[in-house]
Every structure is written in C-alpha cells, then in structure tokens.
Amino acid sequence: MTANGSFLKKPICGVAIDQGSGLEKALREARGPAAAPDDLFRFKQLVVEALSGQATTMLVDAAHGRELLPSFAPGCEKMLAFEADVYRISNEDRITVLPDNLSVSDYPGLGVRVLKFFLYFGPRDPAEINERKFALVADIGRQCSAAGVTFLFEPIVYDRAVPDGASSDFAALKPQLVTEATRIFADPRFEIDVLKVEVPVNLNFVEGFGEPAMSREDAEAAFRRAADAAGDIPIVYLSAGVTFEQFEGALGLARAAGVDMAGFMCGRAIWSDAIAVYGAEGPEAAEAWMRGPGRERLARLAAVVS
Questions:
Q1: Residue 21's pLDDT is what?
Q2: DSSP 8-state symbol, 163
Q3: Residue 296 and which of 13, 86, 159, 303 are 20 to 30 A apart at CA?
Q4: Are 201 and 174 spatial neighbours (Cβ–Cβ below 8 Å)?
Q5: 271 neighbors 290 (Cβ within 8 angstroms)
Q6: How far apart are CA 154 and CA 208, in angstroms?
Q7: Taking the mean position of all CA atoms in its chain, how far away is CA 155?
Q8: What 3-state DSSP class applies to 155?
C-alpha cells in the first residue's frame, strides 16, 4: 500500500469523467448532424474546467487523460484510469482490458499520484475465473507500490444466476455480493489503498425511496455490514449511473447508518444532464450548465459527507 496523505484526507469529493465509447455515443446522438469528431474530448474538458476547482479529485481516462491533465485546477488531485475503455471487457469472463498506451510506471512522470482500476467481479463465479482476476488486481497493486502510486480499486458485482442488475431479485442479493467483494479485496495481498465501492442497496426497493421491499432499518444495516468488510481500507462510494437525487439519498442513508466513509466518486449523477444541453445548445451552454447546476450538485454531495 502507498501513502498519499493529501488524497486520503477526508472527505474525498471526486468527480469521474472516465467514460469512453458509451459517452461518445450519447454525445453523438445528442448532437445529431452537428456532431464533431472532438465532441468527447471537448465535453470532458468542460467538465474538468468547470468542476475541478470544487472537487478534491477528478478521474480521467487513459485515452484522453494526458490531454486533460493540464486543465485541472490547482489543488485537485489527478486520478487516471488504468483501463482501455471503462466497462470494456475482453470476454464473457468480464475481465477488464488494459490500456496499450499507458503503464503504471508512467504515472509519476505524468504528475498523477492515484490510479483507478475497475473490474467486474462475481463472488460466486467459478474459482478459476476469480483466481485470474485476483492475480490481475494483485499485479497492479504491486506495480502501484513499486511506483509510489496510490491504488484505488473499483469492483462492480454481478451474479450469473441473476443477470438483470435492476431487478428485485438482484436487489435482494446485492448487499451480500457487495459485502463479499469488499471483504475479499480488503486482503493486504492486493495492496489496495482505497476501495471505490457500490452502494450496497438498490434504493428503488428501499422503504422511503421506492418499493418497500427492504426496510430503511435493514438498508442501514446493509451499509454497515458492507463498510465493515473493508476493515482499515478507506471506502468511497460510486454513483453507478443513478440519478443525482438517488445518489444524494444513498449518501445520506450511509451517513444515517453511521458509516465512516472517506467520501464519494460521482460521474453521471452530476453531469449527465449536460449531455442534452451540449447537444441542443452547444458547448458554451453545457459549460454554463456545469458551472451552475453541476457545481450545485457537487456542493450538495460534499455537504452530505462533510
């Protein structure tokens, strides 16, 4: 594990703009005939320029990161994803494709002290598949330690027997899956410094937020169990594409449960509404949106975790 006092200082209020092909497609559809080849980079740059002054850290992708790093505001910790394209996987085993233009040893020279690596993980998958995933994560952890880079790891859980992640069946299973994944990767052999974890419940099925399939009391208990599984490793919550209101509610639920969270990393819940603005009115209007409602959303999330 690698010490990085400034990054680990609570609360971490992070913005993620590491999305790749999916965001590019959304922008192209929003722009229609006005779509331009550099829309993806321009949109990412607007997010960085508008929000990095308020964020404690920002996450950018391997494909555009080098070009985006100079746009960071002073004092905003630079975080670079170690993936070819976020959520791009190599095969049915769901193993993340690594970038071919970036090595862990490159990070210090780029002025980047935090590496983020994402991996789909099924606690109930065959042992052979998970052993390969364990080896990959452990190898990245070793490289980060050798390079003096903070390792932030993001496991996203799934279960082959319940493929619909939005279903009530998966919602019932999710607390256990998140807890198991967190406990597994808290093992010191992975040399992980920070765990970027999922909210362990689906608020669409929690009393007071959606269908009351799970009581608020049980939801708070699920937050505590999943967080306790991390041991001494700090955790930050990811927004996973939910609405801003849902993510704000989830952070509030974690706080009510007494979870000692290090903070959050939030992407689409903050800036996704700016995609339509970018498409309909252009980059300047999107930038104005991010400096208005975008900053307001970030401030509201920061207030929950402070």
A1: 86
A2: -
A3: 86
A4: yes
A5: yes
A6: 28
A7: 9
A8: strand
pLDDT tens readout for residues 183-209: 999 999 999 999 999 999 999 999 999
Distance CA 85, CA 23 (A): 11
HSE at residue 118, side-chain half, CA atoms within 13 A, is 25
**Dist. CA 142–CA 200, nearest whole Å:** 28
On the question of pLDDT at 89 being above 90, the answer is: no
| Residues 196 and 236: beta-carbon distance below 8 Å | yes
CB count within 10 Å of CB 258 equals 10
How far is Cα 174 from Cα 169, in angstroms, rounded to an integer?
9
**Which domains does the chain possess?**
12-305 (3.20.20.70)
Closest CA to 249 of 296, 294, 216, 211: 216
Reported pTM: 0.95
Q: How far is CA 306 from CA 2, 57, 188, 257, in A?
A: 24, 15, 28, 15
- Our CA angle for 15, 21, 22, nearest 5°, is 70
How deeply is 175 buried, as exposed, middle or buried, from its count of CB atoms within 10 A (0-12, 13-18, 19+)? buried
SS3 per-residue string spanning 188-250: HHHCCCEEEEECCCCHHHECCCCCCCECHHHHHHHHHHHHHCCCCCCEEEECCCCCHHHHHHH
Binning pLDDT at 50, 70 and 90, where does residue 85 land?
confident
Give per-residue pLDDT as tens, 93-134: 899 999 999 999 999 999 999 999 999 999 999 999 999 999
The tens digit of pLDDT for each residue in 269-301 reads 999 999 999 999 999 999 999 999 999 999 999
